[in-house]
Predict the 3D structure of the following.
Amino acid sequence: MKYYAVVLFVLFNTLVNAQINSNPPNIFIITTDGFRWQEVFKGADYKIISDTNYVRDTSLMIEQFWSEDLLERKKKLMPFFWNVIAKKGTLVGNREYGNDVNVANLFKISYPGYNEILTGFADRKFIPNLTVRNKNSNILEFLNNCNGYAGKVAAFSSWNVMPYILDEKHSNFSVNSGYEMLDEQNDSTNMLINSVQNGVEIKSHTRYDLLTYASAKNYIEQKHPKVLFLGLGETDEFAHKGQYDQYLQKAKQVDQIIAELWYYVQTDPFYKGNTTFIITTDHGRGSKTSKWSQHGFWVKGSGETWMAMIGPGIAAEGERKTKGELYLKQIASTIGILADEDFHVGDHPVAAPIPLTKESTVTPIPTNIKPITINLNNK
Ligand SMILES: [Zn+2]
């Protein structure tokens, strides 16, 4: 009897593991361009929000985004970050505690930043923000070549340079960026989004984030990608214009988009309990009040970034308040760790992953697992 019990136990564990491995974790990488750690961790900046050079209606903005109380203030701007991620996930990059997240590249602009995040390599070669091919291999294409992820990788971005950073032309996963049309075949939602895109008269390099999100969301619902890159861009657009009011409104919208996506994955049987979000930005901006709208090699603060993570494999650490230094280039191999794949490529080195404190080392046995007899008959 004891012997059979042991055999059954071993068999059961093997089946549980087989089931888990056949459904590796889903990973969503979400970025919002050039959004400062200062606003993430401290909410609206009073000096900027009350300056009519940057805000058209200062009293209305103060009403909506300001509070003397730090927690209340940051919750006004990013409620999902501070109500949910701060409790169930990890927030890194509050420099008030010496907890630094930096870019490792020298340039502190977008192309080198996304290259660093997605390839794990801070290239010393300067590539300007233009539609030129990136020859560095990235984590998305790497995972797309792994067993559990093949054909299950997709990228959507507001910025129309992303297909070049991700080298879509030489990859096997799709990237939808800028005002690129969506596949309309039997898809009324995509037809609707396309007609809205067609109606946008002045098309800049950055599509409205809401259109990028709607496109990604429909794809997620229809195709259930296991790895998704969602690159939002309007925070940077309005910062460059020096419009702090719009910059904050767009940041709040990013928080809302992430909240909605998180709710979706927690209530969808395909994604529920098996999906991790990694959220970050490609560069910081000036830390001085007069320089907040700018960024680049010469602007102090441009290399200062942040990260937020939530999902299985991420501990409920909350805001990290210990001294530390992490780099954007560590994200790619961290995604590899979460996917249980060792990210390495032939053409460039890859930075070490971020040390993660795991929630628990014991793999919970899924409650919805079928009885052993039924599993044995499955393929
Ligand atoms: Zn940028």
